[in-house]
């Protein structure tokens, strides 16, 4: 599979994701993950080439949905996602594209 741009890797499948920069990762941008929260134990958030912490409002929204989130660079998040998926873990990923 090949894709250009940011993606959401959810239990329902791989989806194109509009955010292009860390500042675009809003609570609304993660609504698709929140909708599938019952099937996700961990949401990995890849913020591009560099780690950019998410704000308290976003972390609160995810917590209210029962989602634990780990934030890291996209490359690390993609690698971690693949390892956890291979271990049959209930993981999802929101990955910003790296130019």
Structure, explained:
- The structure is a single chain.
- This protein is of the alpha/beta class and 99 residues long.
- The chain has one domain: MTH938-like (Hypothetical Protein Mth938, Chain: A).
- The protein is 27% helix and 23% strand.
- The protein has three helices and five strands.
- Strands 2-1-5-3-4 form a five-stranded mixed sheet, sandwiched between helices.
- The longest helix has 13 residues, at 74-86.
- It is globular.
- The relative contact order is 0.27.
- The model has no long low-confidence stretch (mean pLDDT 96).
Q: Notable features of this structure?
A:
99 residues; single chain; Hypothetical Protein Mth938, Chain: A; alpha/beta; 23% strand; 27% helix
Task: Give the termini distance in whole angstroms.
Answer: 18 Å
Oligomer: single chain
Give the helices and strands as they follow along the chain. EEHEHEHE
| Content-based structural category | alpha/beta
Adjacency order of strands in the biggest sheet: 2-1-5-3-4
Backbone shape = globular
Q: How many E-type strands?
A: 5
At the fourth level of CATH, the homologous superfamily is: MTH938-like
**CATH-defined topology:** Hypothetical Protein Mth938, Chain: A
Uncertain stretches: none
CATH architecture: 3-Layer(aba) Sandwich
Number of helices: 3
> What is the helix content?
25-40%
């Amino acid at each position: 599979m090949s894709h250009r741009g940011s993606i959401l890797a959810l239990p329902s499948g791989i989806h194109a994701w509009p955010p292009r920069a860390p500042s675009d990762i809003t609570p609304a941008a993660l609504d698709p993950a929140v909708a599938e929260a019952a099937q996700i134990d961990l949401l990995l958030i890849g913020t591009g080439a560099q780690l950019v912490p998410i704000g308290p409002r976003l972390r609160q929204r995810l917590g209210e949905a029962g989602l634990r989130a780990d934030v890291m660079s996209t490359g690390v998040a993609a690698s971690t996602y693949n390892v956890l998926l291979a271990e049959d873990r209930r993981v999802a990923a929101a990955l910003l594209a790296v130019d």
